[in-house]
């Protein structure tokens, strides 16, 4: 039966494609028989039909239409041909070609274009730049498209222009969501929702509600998020969009889990699973199964949870969903711990940690590739612009060959000066871009360094867990695993952000020091202090700047210390920066450097990398960012510890 349905669907799809091709071919025949501008019109109509199933042919017939329309001076068909060409490039994934085509259309015909056509071109450019990962340019053109549509006279406003405006606002909101500018994203999504409601566009209302739900979920306003997601689900069901209904129901189930309403979480997750199976949405099946499993675990019903966790893991492995696969190992670890099988729990926890580390490294690689691609694209565009200008200069020289010698000499001199100034500006621009690229690469190197450090720490931590298990100290093993899991999650999340709150930084530091204290059998104690003028929940600082100095104190300062070690971490504001003091009572740098040459090299490398990162922050924020190390001594001159002062930029929410 399934095979028959599949064959029937393929036949229907094939029939539809053949019908489209038949329409396009018929339009080509009409064009070949038609005279003048009518021929261009039919070729453009054929191009639009071909774009749906054969975009290369679409470009071919748009080019024919453009040639005829240019010869006949029919501006409307010239525009249609160029717009169709750019549209075909977008469908084919040739985003840079689409971008260049639209920019050339605006440059050459912008003064003749009406507002609606200009808005369409800027919307097209927004799509091209979005796919080229240039969010700044994408938002710029989408905003420009919206501003042009805002200027339309009442009699010019149509359902098409209103829909285009809504699409612009939704795309801007989606991009701002991706770059974590949630207040502005909410503003554009709410505007899109208002406009969609005004014209009764349920489909785009659904998209707006879903986007707003995502923002509320990120901000942990779960009750509001449930309301927004529920409205998106209602509209999806009304429109018959079963896939959207399933995924939004899954989101609501997860929110109820966060709110600890596990019965409601199960109800929505079961609904998402049922519809996901109906429409064969494998991601939804894996996610909903995982949500059901974790809810049963929280309800202390591990036997009910197991089948759903295993289903989620099976689908995630088959479909290559690494995040969901890592989560399934995490849930299995909890399941085995509840069953008292700590050896299996340890194995599943290690698998989860390994997958999360792999995902982290893949994200870093993707960031590097994105940066390199953008840089190469900008270089290619600069080369095209330079070649174009060179050609224009040469044409001008050829046209002026027969003019008087004095005028020719003056023209050449003027062109030489212009060329010198132009290339000078280009070199200056490229130099600025090079500096910016170096700063980006430095940030990436810091992330890569953390990616290299994490596996060593993970190895030591897992060895500690194994040692607890080997002596049957189950409580310590599970305590250590819980802290270790939370620390890994914090490091993964924080390392992807440019700024985090002091509260988040202290939570990560505390987890790290608690784990190290357990590993070194309470060989040291620690204390945090925050000046009363600092609100740790609203003050943001760069992440992972302090941990390397704390690590130095633990690993090197307390290495041969007689007595118990102590670390004090204090935060205070001074001269427009947040300053952090890390002070220990260790053996001091002179003894540590003398006894451990390898430690000296590691410390030197860590200091240099931190110094470079602070220098980059100083360039970005235009404030003094630095650190200094002071050796502490007793009145009789003996080393009694180390004090580090780190000055860093900050912002307040």
Describe the structure.
The strands form 2 sheets. Strands 2-4-5-7-6 form a 5-stranded mixed sheet. The longest helix has 66 residues. The radius of gyration is 31 Å and the shape is globular. It is 76% helix and 8% strand. Among the domains are: 74 residues; 118 residues; 155 residues, Heat Shock Protein 90 (2-Layer Sandwich). By secondary structure, the protein is α+β, with helices and mostly antiparallel strands.
Q: How is the quaternary structure best described?
A: single chain
Number of helices: 23
| Overall pLDDT metric | 78
> Alpha-carbon distance between the termini?
59 Å
Q: Output the CATH topology of one domain.
A: Heat Shock Protein 90
Q: What summary fits the major beta sheet?
A: 5 strands, mixed
Strand content: 5-15%
Tertiary shape? globular
What fraction, in percent, of the residue positions are helical? over 70%
Quick one: CATH superfamily of one domain?
A: Histidine kinase-like ATPase, C-terminal domain
| Number of DSSP E strands | 8
Class based on secondary structure composition and strand pairing: alpha+beta
Low-confidence stretches: 1-20, 364-394
**CATH class of one domain, please?**
Alpha Beta
In CATH terms, what is the architecture of one domain? 2-Layer Sandwich
